Structure formats: structure tokens, C-alpha cells
TrEMBL record:
Molecular functions per Gene Ontology: ATP binding; ATP hydrolysis activity
Gene Ontology BP terms: DNA synthesis involved in DNA repair; double-strand break repair; SOS response
Keywords assigned: DNA damage, SOS response
Organism: Streptomyces aurantiacus JA 4570
Protein's name in the database: ATP-binding protein
Domain ATPase AAA-type core: 174-331
Domain (Endonuclease GajA/Old nuclease/RecF-like AAA) ranges: 1-46
Amino acid sequence: MIRTLAVENYRSLRKLTVPLDRLNVITGANGTGKSSLYRALRLLADAGRGGAVTALAREGGLQSALWAGKAKAEATSMRLGFAGDEFGYAVDFGHPMPTSGVGAAPSLFNLDPEIKRECTWAGPVLRPATLLCDRAGPAVRTRTADGGWHRTQGIRPYDSMLSELADPQLAPDLLRLRELIRSWRFYDHVRTDADAPARAARIGTRTPVLGHDGADLAAALQTIREIGDADALDAAVDDAFPGSRVRILDNSGRFELRLHQAGLTRPLGAAELSDGTLRYLLWAAALLTPRPPSLLVLNEPETSLHPDLLRPLADLILTATKDTQIVLVTHAGPLAEAVAKGARRHRVDVNSTELVKQSGETTVAGRESLLDEPLWYWPKR
């Protein structure tokens, strides 16, 4: 489980260290940095897939993503990291080196940042004795079984060692960390408009993990019914829409969702459902997955939900914490309150963090000194 998330010089997050627990609720007013925190987590996940540099380039390059507030010196690097019970990881992005040399052609990829430092370590705090893999520029050293170091040269500045050097023989710990990061799952504003993929009939195959666009909703719900917790699915639907149940029709291999509601003479298809009803069913499919991830991050799942659905959604989130660490990013006070009330009923601890912005910088509300922050050390360049 992740215990600490650290971000430096990413958008409004000039220097932010956040403690995490099994169930985490991130709140704050609009513009306080909640979305930046969510995107920082996604960038860490992209690092595990070798796509962090590409993701930053899509944001306009490092210069667009860097902290731009008032400071003694202009920010020139962006650092992301996390630490947990088993592993920690930190990555330091900087500006690319200018093309030099006689006859050297200027590069067209100047929006691509370079990875200047990258480290993994055992346990929750970076210390020299806990280092497992240590990268400085193109050189990487990995800890061997006898406590020594194996050194590798030539890793490219835009490649992560998580994608390039995760070898079961050479760096088994790096491989385990990579697979841990790759198991993280994110859901952010899944479409429910009239043309949303979730409203159309689709070829159905076993789907233990709901896709990010929700196109495979019917297959995901049927997979829960066959190999997951069908009773929990039925209970979640009845809890939100009393007397209702979901069924999936197989029309020559194409799966179609049907919602049977009390008082109606026929079931409703996905194309007929309200945005809120469809969104709730999408969250039910995501949170009741038969293949739970190590970390599940939800960004403003309350969008388009009727207030009456917030308490059933909170119960779904609490159910998911049995197998998964949850980070819920929300600006809806009623949802945060519903999660807190449900947690008290289920005797689950909630780690609540409210973000505020002061002088353009995101901070944690109520934090008065460095002593209130989790212990964290960045690798030095």
C-alpha cells in the first residue's frame, strides 16, 4: 500500500507531500490543485509504462507543466515520487540538453523532457542503505543479491528504467515495482452523453476490468455476475434504484444492457437511461471488479449524479476498500460526508486531505509546519 505521495514543481504543486491510507478522500474548492494531484498520480503510472515523457509532451512540454509561481529561482525540474510498505520510487524530470557539435541538426523534440534522476528503494523512506536501483543520467546501478552493485550504461534520457531494465534476473525488485505501478487503475469523467460508448451494443467477451471509456459496460457487468460478486451487484443496483435489477441480453454475440425498474412494463436499454443512472452503473462495474487493482483512483465520480445516489456510491467505494487502496478526488462535500458516515458504520478509517491554494501554491489545509508532513527525501542530482 502507498503511504506517501510527493510532488514538486508540477503546476500548482510546488512542494506537496501527502500521506495516504487504505481509503483517501481529497477535497478542496475549484482551482486548488485537486486535478493536478490526480494528474501527478497518472504521470507516475505512465512512468511504469514508459509513457511519462510522452504524457508531459502532450501537456505542452516540461515548461508548460512546471511550477510558474513566485519563487527565489525559476523552477527547472519536476519531481514525482511515492513510497509504500514495500517499495519507494522517485523520478526527476529536467530540460533536454541542447543539440551540440559540428554539423549536428537541431532536434524537433525539444518538448520532450529528460529523466535526470530515478531511484527505487525498499520501504517507506529513501536512505542509502535501502536503495535498490539508482539512475543518474544514462548510468544505472542495481543492487545485487550479495549487497554489491551491477552497473549499466547507455539508457536513453527519455526512457524510464522501469520500462528498460525490469529484468527478472538482473533487477527482480524493479520488475515487481513496475508491475505494481501498472496495476493501478484510473477513472476520470467517463462519458454518459447521448453518443457515449457505454450506450451502444458491443461484442461481448469476459471483461474483469471496465475500460476507461465504459464501452464494455455490459460485458463488465455480466462478468461480475458470472465470476464476481453477483449479490453485491444486485444489492448495489437495488440500493440506488429500489426494486430495480440489471440484466444483460446476448443478441448474436452483442451484449445489451437492460435495467428492469419497478412500475415499468418493459426494461430500459442503455440508450434510454439518464446520465446519472448510466454513470452509477459504470461506477458499480468499476468498483465491483473481479480483478481488483492495488490502487484505484477516482476523479470526481459524483459528476451528473443525483444527490440520492451519493450514499449508494459511497457504499460501493467502501466495499472496494476490502481489496483495493482507494484515492477519491472530489469537490462534492456531500459525497465526502457520505463516505465518512459509511466508514464509521463499517469501522473503516478515512484519510481526509483538504487542498487549499495560497499565493498560487497548493498546500494542505491545517498544515502549519514541516513537522506535519510525512517524512520524505528526494534523490539529489
